[in-house]
Amino acid sequence: LNTFEITSCFPPPKDLRQEDTDNSIDDVDEDKIDEILRDATRNLVIFFYEAKSHCPSCVEALSEVEEIDDDIEATGYVQVVKTDDRSVARDLGIVTFPSLVYYRRKNPILYDGEFKDSQEVLRWLRSHEEVVTWDLTDDNFESRTDSHSPDEGTLDWFVMFYDADDAPCNSFIPMWETVAHKLRGLVHVGKVETSVNDDVTDRFHIDENECPTFLLFHRGKMYRYKESAKDVRTLTNFALYKFKEQRGMRYTNVSPLEPSATAHLRLFLGKSLPLPISSTLKTEDNQMLSVIGVGGLILIVAITLIIKAYRIKQQDKAKSA
C-alpha cells in the first residue's frame, strides 16, 4: 500500500450528532430525558459529549460505550442515550467531556473511571446499581447516625447538606453518590435536604450561603470540609484521613437533636398538626409551644389528682354513713 492508501483507510472525524445504522444509541435532549425518567421502572445511562468543539476523546469514548450498548439494554430495564445538551450536563454537575451518568430509580451517580475499556465501563455499571447514600431527615438523623454518642467501633458518617431548590447546589448529588460507593463499608454517607429539615440544619449551624456543606462525624466530634475543591477524590480522602488534620468540634458545643416542641404538642393534643404548621414554626414559636405543652401537662396531672382525691373523699363518706 502506498501512503495515500494507508491514510485513506482511516475514516474522517465522526459527527456524534449524526445517527448511523451501526449506532443504536439515541441522541436526546432534556425533554426526552425527563420523559424517560418519569418511568420509575427503568434505569438510564446518559453519555455526555461535546459537539461545539473538536473532541477526539468523545468519539473514542462513545465507541467504547457502543460496544456494550446491547449488553446493557439486554437487561430489559436499562436504556442508553447520548446528549450534548449543556443544560442537562450543568444540572448534573458535569463540566468535562466525555462523561457518563447512571440513573438508578431516578438516583444519579457519576462515572469516575476512564473510557479506554468498554468492559470496565460495563463492570462499573453492574457494580453500582444499588443506591447507597442515606436520606437523612429531622426524624431519623439521630437514630441513624447516633452522632451525639456513637458506640465504640461504629463507622463514621459523612453527610452533605444541600438545597434541592438551588440548582448549582443540587448538581452535587451524582458526584456525592460516587463518593458513597468509594467509601462503602468504611464510612456511612448521607445527605440532608436543608429546605425541608430545619431542625437538623439549625443544629449544625448550616449556612445557606455555603451550599453544599460537608460534615464528617467521627467518635462524637464534627469535622467540617473546608477545601475549595469538591470532587470525588478530595472528598473521599477527607473522610478517610485528611479530617485528622483538623481539630474536631465536640458535641458539648452543639445541641443534641431532641424532639421538637411541635412533637410535644402533638402528643399533648393527641393528634398530628397539619404539615404546613409544623414546617413553618420558628425558634420562638417552639419555645412558646414548649411552655404550653409543659403547662398543659401539669394542668392535666393536677386535675387528675383533684378528681382522685374527690373520689376517695366520697368513698370515705359512704363508709361512715
UniProtKB/TrEMBL annotation:
<dbReference type="Pfam" id="PF00085">
    <property type="entry name" value="Thioredoxin"/>
</dbReference>
<keyword id="KW-0472">Membrane</keyword>
<protein>
    <submittedName>
        <fullName>Thioredoxin domain-containing protein</fullName>
    </submittedName>
</protein>
<feature type="domain" description="Thioredoxin">
    <location>
        <begin position="4"/>
        <end position="130"/>
    </location>
</feature>
<dbReference type="InterPro" id="IPR013766">
    <property type="entry name" value="Thioredoxin_domain"/>
</dbReference>
<keyword id="KW-1133">Transmembrane helix</keyword>
<keyword id="KW-0812">Transmembrane</keyword>
<feature type="transmembrane region" description="Helical">
    <location>
        <begin position="288"/>
        <end position="310"/>
    </location>
</feature>
<dbReference type="InterPro" id="IPR036249">
    <property type="entry name" value="Thioredoxin-like_sf"/>
</dbReference>
